Amino acid sequence: MKFDLATTDALLSTTRAVRKRLDLDKPVPREVILECIALSQQAPTGSNTQGWRWVIVDDVEKRAALGEIYRAGASDYLAAAASATSAEGQTGRVLSSAMWLMENLEKVPVLAIPCIEGRFPPGAPQAMLASTYGSIYPAVWSFQLALRARGLGSALTTLHLMKERETAELLGIPDGMLQVALLPVAYTKGTDFKPAERPGAETITHWNAW
C-alpha cells in the first residue's frame, strides 16, 4: 500500500481544535459518527485490551444539561486564565475560542465523551496512568482525524471533568468507566484549515541524551 504523502501530511497538519467554526445548524448523521468511531477502534491500546467506550450525546435536553455542567466546571478556570492572558496573539485567540465554546456548548449538534474501562486507585503509579491514558488518547485522535477527513471538526476539552460525577449521573455512565474528554462535533464552516506555527523539530529533539 502506497500512501499519498501530500494528502496524509495535510490531514495530520491541519486537523485543528475547532470551536468558533463549528456549524451549529447542520445536523450530523449518526452513521458518520459511527464510521469515525469504527476507525478509532484500530488505534493501539495497552495489552490490546480495547477498553474504549463512547457516549454520544445528540439529545437536545441532555446537551443543554451538559452545557450547564461544563460551565459550572469551566467558568472560574477560564475567567482566571483570561485575567492573566493578553487578548493579543495565539494564546489570546485560543482563550477567546474556549470562552465561546463554554457559552455555546449545548448548541453543538453532537457531544462525544470518550471513556475507558478502569479507574485509578489512590496513589496509582505513573506507569498505570500512562498506560491507561495512552490506551484511549490515540483512539480519540484517530476519531478527530476521521472527522476532519469527512468535513467535520472537533476540539478535545477536559474542563467538564471538574464535574465528572455530575456528568456520569446525567448520562448513566457506570462507576468503573473513566471519562477522559469531551469533544464538540459538527461540520465546519469551510475546510481551509492551515498548519499552526510551531518551532522546528530540531529545537525540541535530543539524540541519545538530553
**Gyration radius over CA:** 18 Å
Identify the overall geometry: globular
Straight-line distance between termini: 36 Å
Number of helices: 7
**CATH superfamily caption of the domain at 18-58 and 108-189:** NADH Oxidase
Task: Work out the strand percent.
Answer: 5-15%
Structure class: alpha+beta
Which spans have pLDDT < 50 for at least 5 consecutive residues? none
Query: Could you name the CATH class of the domain at 18-58 and 108-189?
Result: Alpha Beta
Second CATH tier, the architecture of the domain at 18-58 and 108-189: 3-Layer(aba) Sandwich
The assembly state of the depicted protein chains is: single chain
Which series of helices and strands comes N to C? Answer: HHEHHEHHEHEE
- CATH topology value of the domain at 18-58 and 108-189: NADH Oxidase
Biggest β-sheet: count, sense, barrel?
Answer: 5 strands, antiparallel
Number of strands: 5
Could you tell me the mean pLDDT? 94
Residues in helix, %: 40-55%
